[in-house]
Task: structure prediction
Amino acid sequence: MRIAEHLILSHCPKLAVQRLKSQDGVDFWLLGLAVLADEPGRTIAEIFPSRHSSEIEGWTWFWAGRWLLVSSRLCCQDATGNLGVNHREVDGSQWLSSSPALLGDHLPNAPSAPRIAWRVQHAKGMDWIPAPFTTREGIYKLLPQRAIDPVSGTQHPVRPGPTSAEPGDLAVSFASALQTVMANWARAGFTRLRIAVTAGLDTRTVLAATCAARIDASAYTNLYPFMKRRDRVLPPRVAALAGLSHTFPKLLPVDSDEAAANRAVIAEHMDGAVAHASFGHFANYHRDAAQGSGSSAAHGACFELGRCFFWPKFARAGLGETPPTADQLLSAFMFQSSWRPEPIEHWREAIDRWLGTLPEAVPLAPDWRDRFYLDQRLASWNTNVQRAGDFVESTAFNPANCLRILDLLLRPEPRRRAVGALQEDAIRLMAPDLLRLPINPAPVSERIKRNAKRLIGPEIAQRLRPLKKFLKRVAAG
Result:
């Protein structure tokens, strides 16, 4: 599609795209799925013609989902950059794409961008490529809370929405925003709505908002070999408390040739950006037909930003409120891990580049530790893991992927944030029965270990760690 002179939009035919026009006649293209968190029963397409083009960027503060908004002068992304915007300059021209591989190997009359030999291993150290770097030299990721001019490549922080002042009651505001998001998601035209459920707090929060919005949905849980027992046992019981049916979708194996072809396609699509155990299941199994193209599945991603997720890891490495050096930050991920950042010069340069963005006046996450989780864990690891879901016909939806909702999650004091108090308060308002079952209950062995550590104290527990490792090696032969 020609957006303007020398500006062309090209997209996968399976990706939803809407052409919208602002009050002053400016054309915009909305890619993906975006729903409102501030106006119940309304769609973005219904309201768009009443908004001036100068208001649109601030209005996206209230958009949830996985989306991208493009005009002749603006490319604006969802709260965590979940659809992904990577940029490369070739002979003075800007190229933007969700795919570093496309930018690296398939641009007309442009040399290939060499791969960077990142050492990325699933669940080892920092198991993603640190933004704003990507898998390729000279190709960079647009960080969250930033917009980019698709012609000049100039970037700027997204302007916050008009209601970013302190709300009266956080739990009420948070519950209201989530309930509005879920109700508007139900009006997006999908033939089937599904809620992913685990034993955790985040999917429980989504389920509570589903109940409050009174929408017709079902619950499901994908079974993976690496799942914990609680995530297999509790979901049907939690769904029953919400009055929803629950299923474990069937995974039917494909033949070896199709599995090999699937692995090749996934490898090209991911371009080595992240490693994850679920990719093998996308390659080796047919998905349940119920997950087909007319359906949408809501997930619990992004809530963890509010729970000070990496703060304990950084504290154990001696890091606090003051932003660290690149080496100090990387050392936090090397603590008690066999992972080492190789090639070190690229890791250090990428982290240095990211640390240099901290003084930018973005609307969210003034604490560097929260900004790290938003820019790195959500916009790099989570975004790339979810890109593998592009091969599933169902449309993924993350209701917490909204600047308004993330803003509310970050407002409580750290002590309450760390235990997810705001989410539990919101569940009590929306569907209190869902708290009758424990959230992520620890198995007996883990509780015994935790109590033993508490009994003997942290210093003795630390001294016993080498003995524990030795006994593990003996047991393994």
Q: What stands out?
A: DSSP finds 18 helices and 18 strands in the chain. The chain has a mean pLDDT of 91. Residues 445-475 form one domain.
